Amino acid sequence: MIYDFAIVGAGISGLDIGWKLDTSNASVLILEKSKSCGGRMATRRLNESKFDHGAQFIKRTKISDALIEFWTSRNILKRFPVPDFDSYFGLGGMTRLTKEISQNLNLKYNSKVITLKNTPHGWRLTLDSGDSILSKNIILSCPLPQSLELLKNSDIPFDPKLQDIHYAKSIVSLISLQQPLKEHLTFVENFDSDIYSICSQKGKGLSIDHNYTIVMTEKWSEDHFGLSDDEIKQKSIVLFKTKFGSTDISDFQIKKWRYCQPTSMWSELFYQPHPDIYLIGDAFGGPSLNGALLSSDGLAKKLISNTHV
Ligand SMILES: Cc1cc2nc3c(=O)[nH]c(=O)nc-3n(C[C@H](O)[C@H](O)[C@H](O)COP(=O)(O)OP(=O)(O)OC[C@H]3O[C@@H](n4cnc5c(N)ncnc54)[C@H](O)[C@@H]3O)c2cc1C
Q: Is the CB of 170 under 6 A from ligand 1?
């Protein structure tokens, strides 16, 4: 079979465009290297609790409105527990929201795309398993450096200025405490020069314990990214004790995001290195879920209005 569109990556941008193209009757296959969808909308289970350890919420804007309505109609959306914050999260975690979108889509998990090759039958996408897929068009929705790596490995030229767009790294601590870290703390952003944000997972109803997702600043993350998880834990415990007093930690995990958020943006909502290949994602629409959606929606509008589909 030759698909109309092969989409690489099942984060919010890949799923959103997959959904829109599928609805417009194109044949679509989404290839995802992980065993689940969501990308940076990620939820992890730790004993009886869940932690969102990527995006904590999605803001309601014109671009996210349709999805917010869709999730609301499925009763899986809750308002983020911070006053004056028109934002939402998934009951059961942010990944659940993406799973709901993926339900009627054609997805292949554990499928890392390693090369793209133009053949007389269409584009051949080779997977790390050795399998291959044929498609007329390709949409790359990975974090930009990963999409560029794929283009390089496939000898597909692109504008070198794309390489000037860098991503901030992020180290995230998932901690379970015996006592609250701080009384009445649900969510705080720009906490100080070491900690970017703290989000109580109990405040979101994802756990009954005092569980927190603590996102370290870009600088702290960059300085400590090369350390092992155990070394990062030791340094973090010392840091948290200094800032919050004694912290009785019952569980502690680390998540390292090599590509957390782009620190600058491309000037257009998508990029086309070849007439059949498109790059989308937060490097094109802005460093947030809404930015990723802006990019996927921009390309969907172009493709669906074309005779392409
Ligand atoms: C710690 C953290 C906190 C954040 N907090 C917020 C927040 O609260 N609100 C907000 O709006 N935004 C937040 N963001 C940003 C937001 O999560 C991202 O902007 C958004 O999720 C990007 O979506 P995407 O679809 O562009 O990319 P991704 O979600 O990264 O999806 C890309 C997908 O491509 C897959 N992939 C990559 N390479 C390949 C390959 N070769 N083959 C197959 N699959 C591949 C990946 O596994 C991934 O699933 C946060 C990000 C992080 C890391």
A: yes
Ligand 1 mean position to 209 CA, how many Å? Answer: 27
State if residue 143 touches ligand 1 by the CB under 6 angstroms criterion: yes
Output the tens digit of pLDDT for each of the chain's 309 residues: 999 999 999 999 999 999 999 999 999 999 999 999 999 999 998 888 899 999 999 999 999 999 999 999 999 999 998 887 899 999 999 999 999 999 999 999 999 999 999 999 999 999 999 999 999 999 999 999 999 999 999 999 999 999 999 999 999 999 999 999 988 899 999 999 999 999 999 999 999 999 999 999 999 999 999 999 999 999 999 999 999 987 789 999 999 999 999 999 999 999 999 999 999 999 999 999 999 999 999 999 999 987 555
**How remote is the CA of residue 40 from the centroid of ligand 1, in Å?**
3
Q: Whose CA is nearest to atom 5 of ligand 1?
A: 55
Instruction: Tell me the domains of the chain and their CATH numbers.
Output: 2-165+266-305 (3.50.50.60), 167-262 (3.90.660.10)
CB-based contacts of 288-292 (< 8 A; 24+ apart in sequence):
288/55, 288/59, 288/261, 289/12, 289/41, 289/55, 289/58, 289/59, 289/64, 290/58, 290/59, 290/61, 290/63, 290/64, 291/265, 292/11, 292/12, 292/13, 292/16
For the Cβ of 255 lying below 6 angstroms from any atom of ligand 1, the answer is no
For the whole model, what pTM was predicted?
Answer: 0.97
- Choose which residue among 142, 148, 195 to substitute to test ligand 1 binding: the one with the highest number of ligand atoms within 8 A of its C-beta: 142
